[in-house]
Amino acid sequence: MINRRDFLKLSALAAPGALSFSDVFAQSDAIQFACPVPMSGPFAANGKYADMGMKLVLQKYNKVLGKSLSYTAIDTEGKPATAVRKVQEAIEKGTHFFAGGILSSESLAMGKEAGKANSIFVTTAGADEITGSECNRATFRWSVPTFGAIEQTVRPLLEKLPKAKRWYTITPQYVFGDGLLNAAKAIFKEKGIEHVGNSYHSLAEKEFSGYLTNAIAAKPDVLLLLNFGSQSSDALRQAVSFGMKNNMTILVAWASGLEQFEALGADICDGVYFGAQYWHGIDSPFNKEFVQYVNTSLKIDPNYSLAGSYICTKIMLDAMVKANSADPKAVIAAMEGMKYEGLTGTEEIRKGDHQVIKNYYLLKGKPKSKMRNKNDYADIVSFGKSFLPLDKTMCKLA
């Protein structure tokens, strides 16, 4: 993990030609962006990297349609009510373009607020409802929702481990966790898998020994972790300390990518499977260009939180150019159906629900002895695109 001094340097984006956001704020005709993410609390690390991602892409573009780009960070604290209040305040000050929302609960709330105020909200949160039953015309999602994440992790792992018939799940008790759990249960039922138990936990939980003890007692073939960020890291770290890697396969369905591997270390990640929206080693033309840009600008490899925020903001910037307008309604129309070269290859924004159609990845942690460089923590085992058909999403855009 980077130390505090390095992080402050990175956060400031003290690279040659970096945007001076304080100067841009003084310009009344600037196009205003905001990154509403948890900058404090258990998901603060994800939020801080997302914040860096938006800064970096605004630095890269500098101007769009001849106008400067302004920026503000919003600490949602991971709380929907706080997120909505701060987004409302930003809208009152003239901000109409938002990319953020690490947690599904806050993202659903912020998307609705954007819909009321002629604004756009692009998110990386996972709950199916975001582009499903609670979709709206202002909200777009880059990340694969919970359905696709499970389809591209549980299903290929079952193919690799046909004798793994007993699965235990550990689930955060909110909309994102339930989405992953329900998708997993559907595959279990289809494949005749015995779901030998589930443990729910709160978003404030840090101690998982009790849940892991229950899992050990159930004697599963696979332990499926459905939590995210520091919580999945804490759960995995404790599981490894209990020796669970010796008795079962462990799958983290929704990893936070490189940042998580750096925090855990190769010894813990070795042999563990991880689902990932993004990995810096993806072999696509734009990702190679992006990684090089981050390497040059920040002297690091990009993680998922940084990459997701970068691409969410870039989509809006490119749509402004396409529409030749910064009016949110025109930008939304340009985004609908847009195809572009993205981080995971060719990506497309589905017009009917504003879901980006992209790949999701299954990674496997590798031993330290086989790492080719300090960030070569995992190999891509498989990847693919799994999305509910539009008529099954329950999305009805107004």
Question: What report would you give on this structure?
Answer:
Mean pLDDT is 92; it is low at 1-11 and 13-26. The chain has 15 helices and 16 strands. With 398 residues, the protein is of the alpha/beta class. It has helices at residues 4-12, 21-25, 44-61, 80-92, 104-116, 146-151, 154-160, 175-191, 209-218, 230-241, 258-264, 266-269, 285-298, 304-323, 328-335, and strands at residues 31-37, 63-64, 67-75, 97-100, 120-123, 139-141, 166-172, 194-201, 222-225, 249-252, 273-276, 339-342, 345-349, 356-357, 360-365, 378-384. Helix 3 packs parallel to helix 14 (304-323), helix 4 (80-92) packs parallel to helix 5 and helix 14 (304-323) crosses helix 15. 51% of the residues are buried. 41% of the residues lie in helices and 20% in strands. It folds into two domains: 4-143 and 285-358, Response regulator (Rossmann fold); 148-276 and 360-391, Response regulator (Rossmann fold), CATH 3.40.50.
